Amino acid sequence: MADIKSLDDLKSAVADTPAAAAAPAAIVREPMRDKLGRAYATGKRKDAVARVWIKPGSGKVTVNGKDMPVYFARPVLQMILRQPFTVAGVEGQFDVMATVAGGGLSGQAGAVKHGVSKALQLYDPTLRAALKAAGFLTRDSRVVERKKYGKAKARKSFQFSKR
Predict the structure, then answer these.
(1) What pLDDT was estimated at residue 3?
(2) How far apart are CA 37 and CA 96, in angstroms?
């Protein structure tokens, strides 16, 4: 063992170990795009699964071959889809093409939002901090609880009658 008499000797001894050399200083994320310049991600919410491609453009959003206002008619659902762009500060800079299946409209809107958020951070890793702070990169794990036997629904019991 080396003769360690001061703090500097200890630091140099630790720096010479293989474990210290293997530790990365900082994670550098590279943009992940296909040959067409698009970023792809899968978003999920409840029973809905969305496949999302984003590319630079004018801000056009297409869901299952229809424009966003046609597919998601309720303004609340359209607002949900726009949230990742407003948080990242890139409104109107990306075109979105999404295919979504399963669940209802609310779950599908959440799935597309999750997919858009993941695709944005893959396209431009500098946006990751803002999206992660807003909680858009985390899949919302809440799903419908299954119905149990002996129950009317998942937890609701049948009416009790003493007589």
Answers:
(1) 65
(2) 13
CB-side neighbour CA atoms (13 Å) of 75: 0
Which region among 25-29, 41-45, 93-97 has the lowest average model confidence (pLDDT)? 25-29
Torsion sign (Cα): 151, 152, 157, 163:
negative
Instruction: List pLDDT tens digits, range 75-133.
Output: 999 999 999 999 999 999 999 999 999 999 999 999 999 999 999 999 999 999 999 99
Structure tokens at 95: 């075109």
Structure-token match 């093409």, residue found: 97
Among residues 134, 131, 107, 111, which one has the least CA distance to residue 120? 131
DSSP of the chain: -----SHHHHHHHHHTSHHHHHS-SS--PPP---TTS-EEEEEEETTEEEEEEEEESS--EEETTEEHHHHS-SHHHHHHHHHHHHHHT-TTSEEEEEEEESS-HHHHHHHHHHHHHHHHHHH-GGGHHHHHHHT-SS-----PPPPPTTSSSSSPPPPP---
Q: Would you state the structure tokens that stand for residue 37, as one six-digit string?
A: 């310049």
